[in-house]
Design brief:
L-fuculose-1-phosphate Aldolase; single chain; seven-stranded mixed β-sheet; about 40% helix; alpha+beta; 9 strands; binds zinc ion
């Protein structure tokens, strides 16, 4: 057992949970490096219990660049008393992430942020990613698009609504808002977020030329999307490499 003196009450956690904490902490630090963060907002979470109701979440208003593995809150989605803690989580994050993990058992990790290019795309009437290169085609027919943004969320109902909008997808473009990406592991969710922002960058750059897009036909787009399946496992060496760069620049994420 590794002892974790976390803000959630100095509880002990398993080696498995500790590894999850370290990976999630790395994801926060890397998000700053890639410039996908925004002030002290946005939230990443990871389910700890099998039913997803117990999950790790970043503390309220703590800058992503300073988050350590031991800082992550461990929350029970069914325990309202967490909001009475001195270090109570952001209420909307507690509602939404708790409900999403519970509603989507495969969504062990949930990354929500407002990266610049994807958010620009989400501000368009049609935020969909067109298959115009290999990276954009990775998301062909594989992204949920939520166009029912109703302002900042603070109710469990919004978590349920977003879970249903996500459906069986692992990536969601949230119209007028940002993105949500889920995965079985931090590495896989982070890889999708990485390619999603790159695809959005390609879309924004292509739109910016003012010239018509050369959109792949359905068969080619599907073939190209399916071709990515052979590269899904690249998420692990990529994330391991990115963690190595953190180990060299600032290993405090592992504390
Ligand atoms: Zn947001």
């Amino acid at each position: 057992m590794t002892t974790v003196t976390s803000p959630a009450g100095g509880r002990q956690c398993s080696a498995e949970e500790w590894a999850l904490r370290v990976d999630l902490a790395a994801a926060f630090r890397l998000t700053v490096q890639f410039d996908w963060h925004e002030s002290v907002g946005n939230h990443f979470s990871a389910a700890v219990s099998a039913d997803g109701k117990t999950f790790l979440l970043n503390p309220k208003w703590k800058h992503f660049s300073t988050i350590r593995a031991s800082d992550l809150l461990c929350l029970d989605a069914s325990d309202d008393s967490v909001m009475q803690w001195d270090d109570a989580p952001d209420p909307s994050a507690w509602c939404i992430h708790g409900r999403l993990h519970a509603a989507l058992p495969g969504a062990r990790v949930l990354l929500h942020c407002h990266p610049p290019y994807a958010t620009a795309l989400c501000g368009l009437q049609d935020p969909s990613i067109k298959p115009i290169d290999q990276c954009t085609a990775r998301f062909y027919n594989r992204v949920a698009v939520d166009t029912d943004f109703g302002g900042p969320a603070d109710e469990a109902g919004e978590g349920d609504r977003l879970a249903s909008a996500m459906g069986n997808h692992s990536v969601m473009l949230m119209g007028n808002h940002g993105v949500a990406v889920t995965g079985a592991t931090v590495a896989e969710a982070f890889e999708d977020l990485y390619f999603l922002e790159r695809a959005a960058r390609t879309m924004v750059l292509a739109y910016s030329t003012g010239q018509p897009l050369n959109v792949m036909d359905e068969a080619l787009a599907e073939k190209t999307a399916a071709g990515w399946n052979a590269y899904r496992a690249a998420a692990f060496p990529h994330f391991a490499y990115l963690k190595q760069t953190l180990d060299q620049s600032d290993p405090t994420y592992k504390e």
